Amino acid sequence: MKAMILAAGLGKRMRPLTDHCPKPLLPVAGKPLIVHHLARLRQAGIHEVVINVSYRAEQIIAALGDGDAYGLHIHWSRETEPLETGGGIQQALPMLGEAPFLLINGDVWCAALPTQHALQGNDLAHLMLVENPSHHASGDFGLAGGRVNQTSTERLTYSGISVIHPGLLAGQPQGAFALAPLLRTAIDNNRVSGEHYKGHWVDVGTPERLSALERQLQSERG
Protein backbone atom coordinates (compact mmCIF):
# COMPACT_ATOMS: atom_id res chain seq x y z
CA MET A 1 0.00 0.00 0.00
CA LYS A 2 1.06 3.57 -0.73
CA ALA A 3 0.23 6.63 1.35
CA MET A 4 -0.50 10.26 0.62
CA ILE A 5 0.14 13.13 3.01
CA LEU A 6 -1.80 16.33 2.35
CA ALA A 7 0.65 19.19 2.86
CA ALA A 8 -0.37 21.88 0.35
CA GLY A 9 -2.36 24.16 2.66
CA LEU A 10 -1.50 27.77 3.39
CA GLY A 11 -1.50 27.31 7.17
CA LYS A 12 -3.49 30.50 7.77
CA ARG A 13 -4.73 29.42 11.20
CA MET A 14 -1.13 28.85 12.27
CA ARG A 15 0.02 32.39 11.61
CA PRO A 16 2.36 33.94 12.55
CA LEU A 17 4.24 30.63 12.87
CA THR A 18 3.68 29.86 9.19
CA ASP A 19 4.67 33.27 7.86
CA HIS A 20 8.14 31.89 7.11
CA CYS A 21 7.77 28.15 7.77
CA PRO A 22 5.23 25.84 6.12
CA LYS A 23 2.98 24.06 8.62
CA PRO A 24 4.33 20.53 7.91
CA LEU A 25 7.79 21.66 9.05
CA LEU A 26 6.70 23.20 12.34
CA PRO A 27 8.58 21.33 15.09
CA VAL A 28 6.92 19.25 17.78
CA ALA A 29 8.80 16.99 20.20
CA GLY A 30 12.10 17.67 18.48
CA LYS A 31 11.17 17.07 14.83
CA PRO A 32 8.89 18.50 12.14
CA LEU A 33 5.24 17.51 12.37
CA ILE A 34 5.35 15.73 9.01
CA VAL A 35 8.32 13.62 10.08
CA HIS A 36 6.16 12.03 12.79
CA HIS A 37 3.89 10.84 9.96
CA LEU A 38 6.82 9.51 7.95
CA ALA A 39 8.15 7.57 10.93
CA ARG A 40 4.75 6.03 11.62
CA LEU A 41 4.30 5.07 7.97
CA ARG A 42 7.70 3.39 7.95
CA GLN A 43 6.78 1.48 11.12
CA ALA A 44 3.60 0.32 9.39
CA GLY A 45 5.62 -1.12 6.53
CA ILE A 46 4.68 1.55 3.98
CA HIS A 47 7.56 2.61 1.77
CA GLU A 48 5.99 4.72 -1.01
CA VAL A 49 4.62 8.12 0.00
CA VAL A 50 3.13 10.88 -2.12
CA ILE A 51 3.15 14.39 -0.65
CA ASN A 52 1.35 17.28 -2.29
CA VAL A 53 2.90 20.71 -1.78
CA SER A 54 2.12 24.29 -2.75
CA TYR A 55 2.83 26.96 -0.13
CA ARG A 56 6.60 27.15 0.47
CA ALA A 57 6.91 23.88 -1.43
CA GLU A 58 10.65 24.19 -1.95
CA GLN A 59 11.26 24.37 1.81
CA ILE A 60 9.39 21.11 2.37
CA ILE A 61 11.08 19.35 -0.54
CA ALA A 62 14.51 20.55 0.59
CA ALA A 63 13.87 19.32 4.14
CA LEU A 64 12.64 15.84 3.24
CA GLY A 65 14.31 15.15 -0.11
CA ASP A 66 13.58 11.79 -1.69
CA GLY A 67 12.73 10.22 1.67
CA ASP A 68 15.81 8.01 1.85
CA ALA A 69 16.74 9.40 5.26
CA TYR A 70 13.43 8.08 6.58
CA GLY A 71 13.54 4.70 4.86
CA LEU A 72 10.90 5.82 2.36
CA HIS A 73 10.56 6.86 -1.26
CA ILE A 74 8.79 10.23 -1.49
CA HIS A 75 7.00 11.33 -4.66
CA TRP A 76 6.20 15.04 -4.87
CA SER A 77 2.96 16.40 -6.33
CA ARG A 78 3.41 20.13 -6.87
CA GLU A 79 0.41 22.43 -7.02
CA THR A 80 0.84 25.93 -8.43
CA GLU A 81 -2.24 26.90 -6.44
CA PRO A 82 -3.74 24.67 -3.72
CA LEU A 83 -6.25 22.27 -5.32
CA GLU A 84 -8.16 21.52 -2.10
CA THR A 85 -8.29 17.99 -0.78
CA GLY A 86 -10.09 16.32 -3.67
CA GLY A 87 -8.23 18.12 -6.44
CA GLY A 88 -4.90 17.46 -4.76
CA ILE A 89 -5.59 13.74 -4.51
CA GLN A 90 -6.82 13.59 -8.09
CA GLN A 91 -3.67 15.22 -9.43
CA ALA A 92 -1.58 12.70 -7.47
CA LEU A 93 -3.53 9.60 -8.59
CA PRO A 94 -1.03 8.68 -11.35
CA MET A 95 1.60 8.33 -8.60
CA LEU A 96 -0.75 6.50 -6.23
CA GLY A 97 -1.93 3.89 -8.70
CA GLU A 98 -5.21 1.97 -8.83
CA ALA A 99 -5.09 0.30 -5.42
CA PRO A 100 -6.48 1.75 -2.16
CA PHE A 101 -4.09 4.09 -0.37
CA LEU A 102 -3.70 5.58 3.09
CA LEU A 103 -4.59 9.29 3.27
CA ILE A 104 -3.29 11.54 6.05
CA ASN A 105 -3.96 15.21 6.66
CA GLY A 106 -0.57 16.75 7.29
CA ASP A 107 -1.86 18.93 10.14
CA VAL A 108 -2.96 16.18 12.53
CA TRP A 109 -0.95 14.17 15.03
CA CYS A 110 -2.04 10.61 15.78
CA ALA A 111 -0.42 7.72 17.60
CA ALA A 112 -1.82 5.09 15.22
CA LEU A 113 -2.94 4.37 11.66
CA PRO A 114 -5.72 2.22 10.21
CA THR A 115 -4.64 -1.24 9.14
CA GLN A 116 -3.76 -1.61 5.48
CA HIS A 117 -6.63 -4.09 5.08
CA ALA A 118 -9.29 -1.85 6.60
CA LEU A 119 -11.02 -1.27 3.25
CA GLN A 120 -13.19 -4.25 2.38
CA GLY A 121 -15.49 -5.39 -0.39
CA ASN A 122 -17.07 -2.69 -2.53
CA ASP A 123 -16.29 0.17 -0.14
CA LEU A 124 -14.77 3.42 -1.36
CA ALA A 125 -13.38 4.67 1.96
CA HIS A 126 -12.59 3.66 5.54
CA LEU A 127 -12.50 6.53 8.03
CA MET A 128 -10.74 6.75 11.36
CA LEU A 129 -13.10 8.64 13.66
CA VAL A 130 -12.27 10.15 17.04
CA GLU A 131 -14.05 11.73 19.99
CA ASN A 132 -15.19 15.28 19.26
CA PRO A 133 -12.60 17.86 20.36
CA SER A 134 -13.81 21.01 22.10
CA HIS A 135 -13.30 23.08 18.96
CA HIS A 136 -15.50 20.71 16.92
CA ALA A 137 -18.06 19.60 19.46
CA SER A 138 -20.81 18.71 16.98
CA GLY A 139 -18.67 16.11 15.18
CA ASP A 140 -18.99 14.94 11.58
CA PHE A 141 -20.45 11.46 11.17
CA GLY A 142 -22.21 8.68 12.98
CA LEU A 143 -20.83 5.15 13.32
CA ALA A 144 -22.88 1.99 13.78
CA GLY A 145 -21.79 -1.58 13.21
CA GLY A 146 -18.57 -0.46 11.56
CA ARG A 147 -20.48 1.62 8.97
CA VAL A 148 -20.24 5.42 8.75
CA ASN A 149 -23.56 7.28 8.50
CA GLN A 150 -24.99 10.78 8.51
CA THR A 151 -28.13 9.95 10.49
CA SER A 152 -26.99 8.99 14.00
CA THR A 153 -27.63 11.61 16.64
CA GLU A 154 -24.32 10.74 18.31
CA ARG A 155 -21.49 11.99 16.15
CA LEU A 156 -17.75 11.48 15.99
CA THR A 157 -15.10 13.61 14.30
CA TYR A 158 -13.22 12.58 11.18
CA SER A 159 -9.59 12.35 12.21
CA GLY A 160 -8.14 13.32 8.83
CA ILE A 161 -6.82 9.76 8.43
CA SER A 162 -8.47 7.24 6.13
CA VAL A 163 -8.02 4.54 3.54
CA ILE A 164 -9.31 5.68 0.14
CA HIS A 165 -10.14 3.76 -3.03
CA PRO A 166 -9.26 5.78 -6.15
CA GLY A 167 -12.75 5.02 -7.43
CA LEU A 168 -14.08 7.59 -4.93
CA LEU A 169 -12.81 10.29 -7.29
CA ALA A 170 -13.96 8.68 -10.53
CA GLY A 171 -15.42 11.11 -13.06
CA GLN A 172 -14.31 14.26 -11.29
CA PRO A 173 -13.02 17.12 -13.48
CA GLN A 174 -9.50 18.44 -13.12
CA GLY A 175 -8.95 21.40 -10.82
CA ALA A 176 -9.74 22.35 -7.24
CA PHE A 177 -12.55 20.56 -5.42
CA ALA A 178 -13.31 19.27 -1.95
CA LEU A 179 -13.26 15.62 -0.94
CA ALA A 180 -16.02 15.90 1.68
CA PRO A 181 -19.01 15.92 -0.73
CA LEU A 182 -17.70 12.74 -2.39
CA LEU A 183 -17.35 11.07 1.00
CA ARG A 184 -20.88 12.08 1.97
CA THR A 185 -22.31 10.63 -1.24
CA ALA A 186 -20.41 7.38 -0.67
CA ILE A 187 -21.66 7.28 2.92
CA ASP A 188 -25.25 7.69 1.77
CA ASN A 189 -24.65 4.80 -0.65
CA ASN A 190 -23.38 2.64 2.25
CA ARG A 191 -19.89 2.38 0.80
CA VAL A 192 -17.88 3.79 3.72
CA SER A 193 -16.67 1.83 6.75
CA GLY A 194 -15.17 3.30 9.87
CA GLU A 195 -13.53 2.73 13.22
CA HIS A 196 -13.63 4.64 16.50
CA TYR A 197 -10.06 5.40 17.52
CA LYS A 198 -9.75 6.25 21.22
CA GLY A 199 -6.01 6.88 21.44
CA HIS A 200 -3.99 10.08 21.29
CA TRP A 201 -5.03 12.35 18.39
CA VAL A 202 -4.69 16.10 17.92
CA ASP A 203 -5.84 18.45 15.18
CA VAL A 204 -2.74 20.65 15.22
CA GLY A 205 -4.57 23.59 13.65
CA THR A 206 -3.52 26.55 15.81
CA PRO A 207 -0.39 27.69 17.65
CA GLU A 208 -2.16 26.98 20.94
CA ARG A 209 -2.91 23.36 20.04
CA LEU A 210 0.64 22.91 18.76
CA SER A 211 1.98 24.15 22.10
CA ALA A 212 -0.38 21.87 24.01
CA LEU A 213 0.77 18.87 21.97
CA GLU A 214 4.39 19.79 22.61
CA ARG A 215 3.80 19.94 26.36
CA GLN A 216 1.98 16.60 26.38
CA LEU A 217 4.62 14.77 24.36
CA GLN A 218 7.41 16.21 26.49
CA SER A 219 5.64 15.12 29.67
CA GLU A 220 5.22 11.62 28.28
CA ARG A 221 8.96 11.48 27.66
CA GLY A 222 9.46 12.24 31.32
From TrEMBL:
<dbReference type="InterPro" id="IPR050065">
    <property type="entry name" value="GlmU-like"/>
</dbReference>
<dbReference type="InterPro" id="IPR029044">
    <property type="entry name" value="Nucleotide-diphossugar_trans"/>
</dbReference>
<dbReference type="GO" id="GO:0016779">
    <property type="term" value="F:nucleotidyltransferase activity"/>
</dbReference>
<keyword id="KW-0548">Nucleotidyltransferase</keyword>
<keyword id="KW-0808">Transferase</keyword>
<dbReference type="InterPro" id="IPR005835">
    <property type="entry name" value="NTP_transferase_dom"/>
</dbReference>
<dbReference type="Pfam" id="PF00483">
    <property type="entry name" value="NTP_transferase"/>
</dbReference>
<dbReference type="InterPro" id="IPR054790">
    <property type="entry name" value="MurU"/>
</dbReference>
<feature type="domain" description="Nucleotidyl transferase">
    <location>
        <begin position="2"/>
        <end position="118"/>
    </location>
</feature>
<protein>
    <submittedName>
        <fullName>N-acetylmuramate alpha-1-phosphate uridylyltransferase</fullName>
        <ecNumber>2.7.7.-</ecNumber>
    </submittedName>
</protein>
